Target: Pyrroline-5-carboxylate reductase
Amino acid sequence: MKLTGLTVIGGGQMARALVGGMLESGCLDAEELTVVHKTASTGTWWTENHPGCTTTTDTVAAVASAKVVMLAVKPHIIAEVMTVQDEQGNSADWNDRLIISIAAGIGLDSLTEQAGHRRVVRVMPNTPSLVGEGASGFCAADGVDDDDVELVKTMLESVGIAAQVTDPQMNAVTGVSGSGPAYVFLIIEALADGGVAAGLPRATALQLATQTVLGAAKMVRETGEHPGVLKDNVCSPGGTTIAAMSTLEKNAVRGAMIQAVQASANRSRELA
Ligand SMILES: NC(=O)C1=CN([C@@H]2O[C@H](COP(=O)(O)OP(=O)(O)OC[C@H]3O[C@@H](n4cnc5c(N)ncnc54)[C@H](OP(=O)(O)O)[C@@H]3O)[C@@H](O)[C@H]2O)C=CC1
Ligand SMILES: O=C(O)[C@@H]1CCC=N1
Model:
């Protein structure tokens, strides 16, 4: 299934990752994409990186020409976008369009109220969508039919995996996978720093750290084993890993990660 008539409002980091991944996967052609930007350099980025797409600052016209509208602005800009008027004082017509919001925190009740209809899907994607390894959660309002859900799943699965959850669970999705890449980037950076501290050249340390995280994630996914079992398999009795695990537990890394997820989920709730 190909996505046609997509207007994306907000051409920042997450739009670049998600829509960039969709274009790369072939689920969307650049000719079917309109990006609404505010800053000129953002429009230029899109036309240079995805030739064939349309860029504009006219939100009202871009919504009028769309079948599907993706809201990819910061949460506090959503209300401004939904009530935007053009120079002639015309408001955007959100009717007859599937609305997909990727804004953290903004729930379906608020989105449907602002859209004036209930054909609305809330999505929490993540930036690895850019390389086809995204992890997205989504929930749909009751005006969304099965075809719309299929379309959204096709779109998200073209760049990774997609899990349908409830609206309140979207905050937890934000904590785990929306914000999650940042925690993992931090871990990769820290692993590499450790390698440098132990005497490796920086480039070698970063290469080994990156492949280790990728390999460990792949093992969890492909063996289906509990991560605790896989961890035990690395810990030789009296060996190096159990010495390292003891240090990680002493420094409460497990608790820190749980609290990081909760802090992100709580912040997502606050953004509502
Ligand atoms: N970053 C991430 O990993 C994730 C982000 N999200 C969500 O995605 C959304 C965007 O976040 P992110 O991409 O990080 O933020 P960015 O700041 O990178 O992008 C936001 C974009 O919004 C644009 N913008 C602001 N006002 C308007 C307007 N009135 N009309 C059109 N465009 C406008 C800006 O455009 P311009 O450059 O033209 O000024 C900017 O590029 C947020 O709601 C966030 O919660 C969700 C999951 C993950
Ligand atoms: O930091 C944020 O608010 C966004 C939402 C999830 C990831 N980035």
Observations:
- Residues 104, 174, 178-179 surround A1CAB (ligand 2) (CB under 6 Å).
- The domain at 6-171 is CATH 3.40.50.720 (Rossmann fold).
- The first strand starts at residue 6 and ends at 9.
- Residues 63 and 92 are 6 Å apart (CA to CA).
